[in-house]
Amino acid sequence: MRRIQQTKRNPQQRGGFTLIEMLVVLAILVLLMSMVGPRILGSREKADISSTKTQIGMFRGSLEQYNLDTRSYPSTEEGLVALVEAPADEEEGTSNWDGPYISKSEIPKDPWGNDYQYEFPPEHGKGDFPDIWSYGPDGEDNTDDDITNWTKEEGEEGEETSTEE
Questions:
Q1: Residues in CB range of 68: below 8 A, 6 or more apart
Q2: Which candidate in 18, 43, 122, 145 could, as Cys together with 131 as Cys, close a disulfide (CB 3.0–4.6 Å)?
Q3: What is the dotted CATH code of the domain comprising 43-148?
Protein backbone atom coordinates (compact mmCIF):
# COMPACT_ATOMS: atom_id res chain seq x y z
CA MET A 1 0.00 0.00 0.00
CA ARG A 2 1.08 3.39 -0.79
CA ARG A 3 1.21 5.92 1.87
CA ILE A 4 0.23 9.44 1.14
CA GLN A 5 2.64 11.64 2.80
CA GLN A 6 1.09 14.57 4.57
CA THR A 7 3.04 17.56 5.45
CA LYS A 8 2.57 18.52 9.00
CA ARG A 9 2.55 22.20 9.74
CA ASN A 10 4.15 23.53 12.76
CA PRO A 11 1.33 25.11 14.80
CA GLN A 12 3.45 28.23 15.25
CA GLN A 13 3.73 28.80 11.49
CA ARG A 14 0.95 30.74 9.85
CA GLY A 15 -0.01 30.90 6.25
CA GLY A 16 0.42 34.40 4.90
CA PHE A 17 -0.05 36.42 1.79
CA THR A 18 2.53 36.23 -0.91
CA LEU A 19 4.23 39.32 -2.19
CA ILE A 20 2.25 39.10 -5.43
CA GLU A 21 -1.05 38.98 -3.55
CA MET A 22 -0.08 42.01 -1.49
CA LEU A 23 0.90 43.97 -4.61
CA VAL A 24 -2.39 43.12 -6.32
CA VAL A 25 -4.40 44.29 -3.29
CA LEU A 26 -2.32 47.47 -3.08
CA ALA A 27 -2.85 48.17 -6.80
CA ILE A 28 -6.61 47.73 -6.40
CA LEU A 29 -6.67 50.14 -3.44
CA VAL A 30 -4.67 52.74 -5.35
CA LEU A 31 -7.02 52.42 -8.32
CA LEU A 32 -10.10 52.84 -6.11
CA MET A 33 -8.65 55.88 -4.34
CA SER A 34 -7.74 57.50 -7.65
CA MET A 35 -11.38 57.21 -8.73
CA VAL A 36 -13.07 58.07 -5.43
CA GLY A 37 -10.59 60.56 -3.95
CA PRO A 38 -11.28 63.49 -6.29
CA ARG A 39 -15.02 63.09 -5.79
CA ILE A 40 -14.65 63.20 -2.03
CA LEU A 41 -12.36 66.23 -2.19
CA GLY A 42 -14.67 67.97 -4.67
CA SER A 43 -17.63 67.39 -2.39
CA ARG A 44 -15.71 68.84 0.53
CA GLU A 45 -14.92 72.03 -1.38
CA LYS A 46 -18.56 72.40 -2.44
CA ALA A 47 -19.62 71.97 1.19
CA ASP A 48 -17.09 74.60 2.32
CA ILE A 49 -18.34 77.06 -0.32
CA SER A 50 -21.94 76.43 0.70
CA SER A 51 -21.03 76.91 4.37
CA THR A 52 -19.31 80.21 3.53
CA LYS A 53 -22.36 81.48 1.64
CA THR A 54 -24.56 80.54 4.59
CA GLN A 55 -22.26 82.33 7.05
CA ILE A 56 -22.25 85.48 4.90
CA GLY A 57 -26.06 85.32 4.87
CA MET A 58 -26.05 85.05 8.67
CA PHE A 59 -23.77 88.10 8.90
CA ARG A 60 -26.30 89.94 6.74
CA GLY A 61 -29.12 89.22 9.17
CA SER A 62 -26.97 90.23 12.14
CA LEU A 63 -25.91 93.46 10.43
CA GLU A 64 -29.54 94.31 9.67
CA GLN A 65 -30.37 93.91 13.37
CA TYR A 66 -27.33 96.05 14.26
CA ASN A 67 -28.60 98.70 11.83
CA LEU A 68 -32.08 98.64 13.38
CA ASP A 69 -30.59 99.31 16.81
CA THR A 70 -27.91 101.86 15.91
CA ARG A 71 -29.33 103.36 12.69
CA SER A 72 -26.04 102.66 10.89
CA TYR A 73 -23.72 99.84 9.91
CA PRO A 74 -20.29 99.36 11.48
CA SER A 75 -17.51 101.22 9.69
CA THR A 76 -14.82 99.32 7.81
CA GLU A 77 -12.50 99.92 10.77
CA GLU A 78 -15.02 98.50 13.27
CA GLY A 79 -15.75 95.61 10.93
CA LEU A 80 -17.67 92.50 11.82
CA VAL A 81 -16.23 92.62 15.34
CA ALA A 82 -18.92 95.22 16.08
CA LEU A 83 -21.41 92.34 15.99
CA VAL A 84 -19.87 90.84 19.15
CA GLU A 85 -18.31 93.87 20.86
CA ALA A 86 -19.78 97.34 21.28
CA PRO A 87 -17.87 99.94 19.26
CA ALA A 88 -15.38 101.82 21.44
CA ASP A 89 -16.21 105.29 20.18
CA GLU A 90 -19.56 106.84 20.95
CA GLU A 91 -20.60 107.72 17.43
CA GLU A 92 -24.14 108.82 16.91
CA GLY A 93 -26.39 105.80 17.41
CA THR A 94 -23.80 103.34 18.69
CA SER A 95 -24.97 103.99 22.26
CA ASN A 96 -28.04 101.97 21.23
CA TRP A 97 -25.85 98.92 20.55
CA ASP A 98 -27.78 95.97 21.94
CA GLY A 99 -25.52 93.08 20.95
CA PRO A 100 -23.95 90.72 20.66
CA TYR A 101 -25.68 90.09 17.36
CA ILE A 102 -24.24 86.62 16.77
CA SER A 103 -24.20 83.71 19.19
CA LYS A 104 -20.42 83.26 19.18
CA SER A 105 -18.00 85.21 21.32
CA GLU A 106 -15.82 86.02 18.31
CA ILE A 107 -16.30 86.29 14.57
CA PRO A 108 -15.75 82.86 13.01
CA LYS A 109 -13.19 82.34 10.29
CA ASP A 110 -14.11 80.96 6.88
CA PRO A 111 -13.63 77.20 6.27
CA TRP A 112 -10.10 77.85 4.96
CA GLY A 113 -9.02 79.60 8.17
CA ASN A 114 -9.15 83.18 6.86
CA ASP A 115 -11.01 86.16 8.28
CA TYR A 116 -14.17 87.29 6.52
CA GLN A 117 -13.69 90.68 4.87
CA TYR A 118 -16.01 93.64 5.50
CA GLU A 119 -16.32 97.08 3.95
CA PHE A 120 -18.69 99.95 4.67
CA PRO A 121 -19.50 102.10 2.82
CA PRO A 122 -19.63 99.41 0.14
CA GLU A 123 -17.43 99.52 -2.93
CA HIS A 124 -19.05 96.67 -4.87
CA GLY A 125 -22.58 96.09 -3.64
CA LYS A 126 -25.59 98.01 -4.79
CA GLY A 127 -27.36 100.18 -2.26
CA ASP A 128 -26.04 100.95 1.16
CA PHE A 129 -25.49 97.44 2.53
CA PRO A 130 -21.89 96.58 3.49
CA ASP A 131 -19.71 94.36 1.32
CA ILE A 132 -18.90 91.03 2.97
CA TRP A 133 -16.65 88.44 1.34
CA SER A 134 -14.34 85.50 1.81
CA TYR A 135 -11.11 85.01 -0.11
CA GLY A 136 -12.33 81.48 -0.88
CA PRO A 137 -10.27 78.30 -1.19
CA ASP A 138 -7.11 79.99 -2.53
CA GLY A 139 -6.97 82.54 0.32
CA GLU A 140 -6.27 85.43 -2.08
CA ASP A 141 -8.35 88.54 -2.72
CA ASN A 142 -9.78 89.43 -6.14
CA THR A 143 -9.60 85.94 -7.64
CA ASP A 144 -12.20 83.73 -9.29
CA ASP A 145 -13.01 81.81 -6.13
CA ASP A 146 -13.83 84.78 -3.85
CA ILE A 147 -17.27 84.36 -2.27
CA THR A 148 -19.17 87.64 -1.91
CA ASN A 149 -22.53 89.10 -0.95
CA TRP A 150 -22.76 91.23 -4.08
CA THR A 151 -23.59 90.39 -7.67
CA LYS A 152 -20.58 90.35 -9.93
CA GLU A 153 -20.43 92.80 -12.79
CA GLU A 154 -19.10 91.87 -16.22
CA GLY A 155 -15.38 91.15 -15.91
CA GLU A 156 -15.40 91.05 -12.11
CA GLU A 157 -14.07 87.86 -10.54
CA GLY A 158 -15.36 85.72 -7.68
CA GLU A 159 -18.39 83.64 -6.73
CA GLU A 160 -21.44 85.51 -5.61
CA THR A 161 -23.90 84.57 -2.95
CA SER A 162 -27.61 85.05 -3.20
CA THR A 163 -27.91 87.15 -0.04
CA GLU A 164 -28.35 90.53 -1.76
CA GLU A 165 -31.92 91.74 -2.16
A1: none
A2: 122
A3: 3.30.700.10
